[in-house]
Amino acid sequence: MKTDIQLNVNGKEHTVQSAPDTPLLYVLRNQLELNGPKFGCGLQQCGACMVLLDGKSTTSCQLPVRTAAKYKITTLEGLVDENGRLHKIQEAFVKEQAAQCGYCLNGIIIASVALLNESPSPTDDEIKEKLNLNICRCGVHSRVVRAVKASIE
Amino acid sequence: METTRRNFLQQLGYVSIGFSLMGAAPVPHSFLAPSKMRGSGKRPDQNHINAWLHLLENGKVLIMSGKVELGQGLRTALKQIAAEELDTRLDLIEMQMAETGKTPDEGYTAGSYSIQSSGMAIRNAAASARETVLKMASEKWGIPISQLQLKDGEVIGPKQKISLHQLLAGRQIEQEVGTPSEFKGKTVRRFVGKPVPRKDIEDMVRGNPIFVQDLRFPDMVHARTVRPPSYTSEFVSMNESDFDTQPGFLKLVRKGNFIGILAEEEYQTIQIMERAKKSVQWKSEDYLPANTPLKDYLKTLPLETKTQEDKGDAQTAIDQSQKRHSASYFKPYIMHAPNGPSCAVAIFEDEKLKIWSHSQGIYPLRNSLAALFKMSEDDIHIIGVPGSGCYGHNAADDAATEAALMAVEYPGRHVRLQWMRDDENGWEPYGTAMIVELKAGLDANGKINGWQYEVWSDGHSNRPDGTPESLLPARFLDEGYGAPGIGYKGGAVRNSVPYYTIDAVNVQSHIFLGPLRTSSLRALGAYANLFALECFMDELAHKADIDPIEFRLMHLKDPRSIDCLQKLRKNTSRIDLAEGEGLGYAFCHYKNETAYFAVAAHVKVDRKNGAVQLKKMWAVIDAGETINPDGLKNQTEGGMIQSASWALKEAVRYDARHITSLDWNSYPILRFPETPETEVEVIDRPDQPPVGAGEVAQGPATAAVINAIFNTTGVRIRELPVTTDALINA
Ligand code: FES
Ligand code: FES
């Protein structure tokens, strides 16, 4: 049964009509038309669908939208400021050219932002540990680590 | 966001364009240039300049390539090539990639051939265009060509200048592509050879819509496929009465053994598909060889044996040598396993099909679809849109076919199909399992005097080829198409003949039709061949008691190979190895004719639990003329990491019925904490032709890892993937 659900996404309040057990990912992509969060596995194994919930990186592919309603949700799009300026991590990924196909970037950037929220100057190992859930099949890992480090320098 | 979305759709030719797009709101750098021409269904004639290059009203130049962007940075590299010949700033060059009826038919984007083929075709066309317009202006003004130049979209004379659009009076350059007298890419190199950044990465980090997965159309419906339990399952029955009551349910499409679900919303579709999976009855047999070790089983299959190389008398040379050595290597089935499962959007309207796909070959896919649907090719329009990185022939074409099958049953609405993770892992065409057996002899100086090589492999490509069989769903339909045969056999023997100087060499190939569905995976057979060959070289060096780099140098003559290895030696000369750490090397001349590549791996092995930690990998690569050194580095770094993942983690598992590696737990790949630091040195040789490099790292990087493990443990791993068991207390 669909109901009205209030969501706070990227600083704005939205009312969506959805079955409450629909995973947040589908609501973000298909109702709010956001492209950042991606479907990768639907199993909480790859990180492609990550969003920030109150600043913490969380997979959205199995998270019921009714649960997500309790948090402030930030997607990749929401990291860009109101003047269109990129977050320093986004900027570093562009500068370091840390992407191939880019499908994984959403989750990797979201998790990196969450990491810097917790610890402002992480070591290489801490960066890698934080990104443990994020699958990248193109092998841009070493560039990603360089980009995250560059963003804190 | 609305603007972005509208532009994305416009760029994909959905919204009819009634005004000049260029004058509209800023167009985000998307993978797809605005549609400027209506697709007629016919292939542009590649002998003419206007197949590759169009002059736009706003002074920009549109370059058309039949290749697709796979994350390899091809769009940027092709832009650099065109900009150079046209002496025109990069921001004045637009790119249109892969769309039937608009771009040239360049077959597949595969085999690291895109720079060699599309890049050189565009270089030729752009240089011809330059010479043509200079000649036109020279005739118009009565000034010799030597006093004219083409710059940033204008022809400039001593006192006059004219835009290309004006010069051509709005027409295109229809002349034939000639043989230009100068390539600025070889002489000037203002853009070529520079690390021009990719523009699409900014779109990625902003979350702009760039993937086929991001396409949304008004009234679009969602589709999912109800997979059978195995390759050969047959439909028996299903309780269909149940579906009507499901929220959002639109249609059940059943054609023979193919079942698809259409519903209004994506998650509804997934739920109905899962319900359907439970209610459908299939007849399935157990037939996969789950109880026999794969490497034993493969040898029981009928084989097609061929001699690939026979020079000197290898057998006698080995028999008479001072030292003899033999070894056997095995590589399991490996999957492409893209991060994002395959996806396509299709619409069937007015008896015509339009499909958005991340296929690597839109024209070949169209041929096969025309055969499957018994339609004219001209009535099928395929638009290439980037997907998640594919590394070869993954399920892109299959998803496009399934979306089309369902669109035909539900005309007038856009149908979006994305495969689920278990669809992708369980049904894609894998890179085949392979066996290599090697024997060699060493003379008194430690030189190889005889070499015997045997390789067992399935074919390596079953891409769409104009027949329906290469498309997965075909076999499930009532028409009785069946599965394709062995496919491209040439892939199996890629790099099977050693590049090293050896007098007596014998190479045999044995081709089988294996139990699992296979097709092209990055580097094809060169992966297993170079893994085996480069591990064996390390073993021989050890036997001869010669440094492994020195041992390779003893068997190489050409200066480019030697240069790569010497640079690698220098770059790794100051590594301090701690307790439990090892360094391993490998080399290749890809396909024995394209790029040169030397690689080193630094590993740490924990003897207590057998865990291998990769610390760092170094590479030196010479791909001839370098178009974009950063792009080349990126590809090489990624190739090394993917190869290390194949070596340390990956094997497709199955039981008697079907694949069981259906998610990231049952098909683990290297994760961040397990990945190494990377360092790549590029040797740029502008005087040489540019060659592709996207596949070069695969085989040697695995060998370097395995050789590094030996270097610290003394254990030779000859079966992939490396298991901890092999290394515990070894
Ligand atoms: S899609 Fe959510 S973790 Fe993979
Ligand atoms: S860049 Fe392709 S999956 Fe990471």
UniProtKB/TrEMBL annotation, chain A:
Query: What UniProt keywords apply to this chain's record, in alphabetical order?
Result: 2Fe-2S, Iron, Iron-sulfur, Metal-binding
Q: Which InterPro entries match?
A: 2Fe-2S-bd, 2Fe-2S-bd_dom_sf, 2Fe-2S_ferredoxin-like_sf, 2Fe-2S_ferredoxin-type, Beta-grasp_dom_sf, Diverse_Oxidoreductases
Pfam family of this protein, just one?
Fer2_2
Q: Which SUPFAM superfamilies match?
A: 2Fe-2S ferredoxin-like, CO dehydrogenase ISP C-domain like
At the top level of its lineage, which domain of life is listed? Bacteria
| Any one GO molecular-function label of the UniProt entry | oxidoreductase activity
Which positions make up the signal peptide?
none
Q: Does the keyword Protein transport apply?
A: no
In this chain the 2Fe-2S ferredoxin-type domain maps to 3-79
PROSITE patterns from the xrefs? 2FE2S_FER_2 (PS51085)
Show the PANTHER family listed in the entry.
BLR6046 PROTEIN (PTHR44379:SF6), OXIDOREDUCTASE WITH IRON-SULFUR SUBUNIT (PTHR44379)
Protein name from the UniProt record: Nicotinate dehydrogenase subunit A
UniProtKB/TrEMBL annotation, chain B:
Highest taxon of the lineage: Bacteria
Question: Which residues span the membrane?
Answer: 12-32
**Is Ligase found in the keyword set?**
no
InterPro entries per record? Ald_Oxase/Xan_DH_a/b, AldOxase/xan_DH_MoCoBD1, AldOxase/xan_DH_MoCoBD2, AldOxase/xan_DH_Mopterin-bd_sf, N-heterocyclic_Hydroxylase, OxRdtase_Mopterin-bd_su_IorB
Please give one Gene Ontology molecular function term for this protein.
oxidoreductase activity
- Output the SUPFAM superfamilies linked to this UniProt entry: Molybdenum cofactor-binding domain (SSF56003)
Ranges of residues in domain Aldehyde oxidase/xanthine dehydrogenase a/b hammerhead:
206-286
Keywords, ordered alphabetically: Membrane, Transmembrane, Transmembrane helix
Pfam families (UniProt xref): MoCoBD_1, MoCoBD_2
- Record-linked PANTHER family: ALDEHYDE DEHYDROGENASE, BLL3820 PROTEIN
The identity of this protein, by name, is: CO or xanthine dehydrogenase, Mo-binding subunit
